[in-house]
Fold these 2 entries.
Entry 1:
Amino acid sequence: MRKRNNRIPEFKSEDKEREFWATHSPLDYFDSGSIKSASFPDLKLSLKSISIRVPSDMLAELKTLANKKDVPYQSLAKVYLARQIALERGSLSRSFRKKGNRRPHAQKAAPVDAEARR
């Protein structure tokens, strides 16, 4: 790859920078010769694997919900866990009180059709 002599100009505003990058390629300002190898020997993973036993029907329902949302079921389980932990700590309940005194999981009931009542 040939060496690039282009320097990224200083911008007076984000609008000017946005205009610039709309008409220029970042590759014109990239020098692959300046890449240096990095090592992070003390970097620790922020995730911890756990094993949890759940009833088969609960797992099946979780997988169904995840499939409808087009996300992996493990990710959906993490979202649900995080939401419940926040609720238990009170952060969700405080934020919902500010927005109209509603409970976090309260939903409006669907209107009942006159035919369905019979």
Entry 2:
Amino acid sequence: MSAVRNGEAIDSPSVTQAIRLTIPAKAEYITLGRLALTGIARMRAEPFSQEVLGDLKLALTEACTNSVRHAYAGGEGMVEITYELHADKLVVEVTDTGGGFAPPTGHRTRLNGAVLAEGGLGIAIIESVSDELEIRERSEGGSTLRFVKHLPAAETA
């Protein structure tokens, strides 16, 4: 069984589902991002395993928490979450227009014996559950954290 949209299988390489969600930069709204992620996971012909979905929700929560906690220093602002579902991967970007964020150096080594400051595990957690991670400052202010999870190809019938 395959999900179909506009006559084309959703898991076809040429089809990408993209959803953008903008939430206030407040902790209580992060749940909306997690709910959207659950819905997106169900759009695949072969849904994500519970373990993968749990890991992705954790990574999203950490990314959003960074924006809420650091970008606006308790002030008002918005966090934009973009989800791109491809046949072979899920790309998630969390963007804010707040104070910016200096990306840590030494990606993929943060959990290997490094001493992290209180609250400093978020990036390391995202690194450990995703396949790719990119953090960049935006020229117009703020930052974007992008993570990618490669997905197994859906079986075709």
